[in-house]
Amino acid sequence: xxxxxxxxxxxxxxxxxxxxxxxxxxxxxxxxxxxxxxxxxxxxxxxxxxxxxxxxxxxxxxxxxxxxxxxxxxxxxxxxxxxxxxxxxxxxxxxxxxxxxxxxxxxxxxxxxxxxxxxxxxxxxxxxxxxxxxxxxxxxxxxxxxxxxxxxxxxxxxxxxxxxxxxxxxxxxxxxxxxxxxxxxxxxxxxxxxxxxxxxxxxxxxxxxxxxxxxxxxxxxxxxxxxxxxxxxxxxxxxxxxxxxxxxxxxxxxxxxxxxxxxxxxxxxxxxxxxxxxxxxxxxxxx
Length: 287
Prior knowledge:
The protein is an alpha/beta fold. Helix content is about 40%, strand content about 15%.
């Protein structure tokens, strides 16, 4: 990978840009300005979701850019309340309407359970996934996948459905690498995407990460993004600063050594959001 426009190949042959822009809370000011800045900074891969409320602002930013829709890679996700065969199809059409497009590059199930303790999740996930398969068959979406699914959630789909998920989007960063899920996905040709690849402020102030970043003369954020890329994982950083948007792309001019990769990958748990697919929110509000 040499630029943000290079791609990982999905299991259906589609190219997935190796670095994207996360839109969670990127339009808190109820405007498209942050997303316009991201486009100006060079981003073409945008990750959104119905829950984020950023779909209309992303549509506005893309239209105002004057850049063709085909040059963008857009992912959206169906929220917990939109699961189910009929409900997810309606949610998909609403996302198309919000994004002012007639297709998506990728569509994901946002979480495997609609609520903590939900016991009939296997049946619900199958019904939801079946609808995504039909959207894919109809050419309305180029790739389908999941988000925050653990191996036992994915197994349920693999054992009962026709199409293998192309990606699994999970929280991933030094201090919370979810090794079993990453290894499972790798073994099943499912590309991992990283939400919160930089973790939280506690990571930015971590002494070991600061020391390693200093060795490469980069920021801790750049180090964390590069770490994901070297693991073959697509990072989806977000920022409201034009300077940091550009800095977060400048991660192709250095390579983390094998020793430093081991050090980063074996950190004590640090910077976890508190979100767990089966038990709900432990610390922070739902993403």
